[in-house]
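Example record

One chain of 148 residues, shown exactly as stored in the release files.
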Amino acid sequence: MSDNITQLDIIEILKLLPHRYPFVLVDRVIDVVPGESLQALKNVTINEPFFQGHFPTEPVMPGVLIMEGMAQAGALLAYITEKEKVGNNLVYFAGMDKVRFRRKIVPGDQIVFDIRVLKRKSKLFKLTGKAYVDETLAAEAELMATFS
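Predicted structure tokens for this chain:
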């Protein structure tokens, strides 16, 4: 990867994240400003394994997985921002506050995760995350992440 990263496809994402199917919840990074912000996409399809049980007659993406997608996008921002410090270490999701769900996310939706750095201190990142569908806010939270 070059130092002027602005986008990442799924192959590049898999080089950074330790997650694998069915738990990779970011399909593409569409914009990144290291140390500041990252926007990423998640295409939600009926083929997602969680829709078999959540809920069979009215499929809705679980809120915890929306938060996990935000956390993965935040981890990507940390890896890109602190690549020398993070190296091959894992980025761990350390907490979340002010979580709000504003609308359901269903098969056929495309989530745009918008992650912004609020504060950075040594190995700790405090981030704000928002999930949009069709430019409508679907979920938001403040996230904390750290690396070993």
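Notes: The CA atoms of residues 2 and 59 lie 40 Å apart.
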